[in-house]
Amino acid sequence: MLRAVELFSGIGGMHCALDFVDLNYEIIAAIDINPTANLVYESNFPNAPAMNRTIEGISLNQWEKWNADIWLMSPPCQPFTRQGKQEDLNDRRTDGFVHLMKSILPQLKAKPKYILLENVSGFEYSQAHQLLLDTLQAHNYYYEQYLLSPIQFGIPNSRLRFYLIAKQQEKPIETYSSSILTRISNFERLYNKLRQKFPSKGLSLEENSLHENDQITDRCSHSSEILVQPDQSIYINDFLISNENQDFELNEKQLERGLHVCDIITCHAKRSFCFTKSYGKYFEGTGSLFRTLSNRIRYFTPKEIANLHCFPLNYQFPEQITTRQAYSLLGNSLSVFVVGVLLENLFERS
Questions:
Q1: Which residues are catalytic?
Q2: How far does Cα 161 stand from its chain's mean position?
Q3: What is the overall mean pLDDT for the chain?
Q4: pTM value > 0.90
Q5: Are residues 217 and 108 in the same domain?
Q6: Which residues are annotated as active site (predicted)?
Q7: Distance (Å, rounded) from C-alpha 229 to C-alpha 222?
């Protein structure tokens, strides 16, 4: 059984990916300092040992006791985002990651055999990225780096992210590649599983009228790197809870303020823009809006965004979590499908 530690665990996207790939695993610790994220995590995974702790506050002895086979991590992205100050290692939110690379992994006798990391596009230019590579090379890890987006696999959402998968080798590695790959194979099994999870609902002639804005264009991240056939791209309709939802419609004031800057798609779109933690708070650059069959404009619901991230169908937010909090947590989360594909390749499964 694979012994896994989730670092910066958030709402459990890595945990969901392990389930999606059908790995025989045990979560031995899920660590995050966000109490709201931990509440959502614990409500969905009540048997997993979630810890509201800083990485720096965990002793080396505890890491030895855990004796993990794999570290799954999604460190805070704010130090590397285009919208942020890009303070990199000077940002205190990198302290946990730096502690792992400088103090834990080098001293750990029971090093993890596998490591998977996810972060924003742009991380690859950071000092933190160079620290990661230097540490992996110093301890004989073979690694592959990727820039991937769900839209490449037919999922109608752009969410370009940096990924690294690493496996410790017994023999020294003579040379390392600096290449960052934008394509990956060995995803067909998971694609078929995804289609069983989100089968085609079909569209009527009325619903299936062509809207130019619904098509995949070069405004979609990695649209030039699509890995599926055109007829394999999935309609947004298959991820919706319902077409109409009055609770999430924009009011007149919101329409006046945001309509001219918003990206608006319909049920037959094969794309949507990346949903950020500011979705529902700001309009421009935070994610697409939805035009219903009655020509109303509404937000995507948190559950629909979770579907686009390929979270399990039974994944829920506790009642005390507000819509704004759910949007923020999802904006900081990840694509379960893409992480699943990386796990499939990391373990060389087919």
A1: 77
A2: 8
A3: 91
A4: yes
A5: no
A6: 77
A7: 15
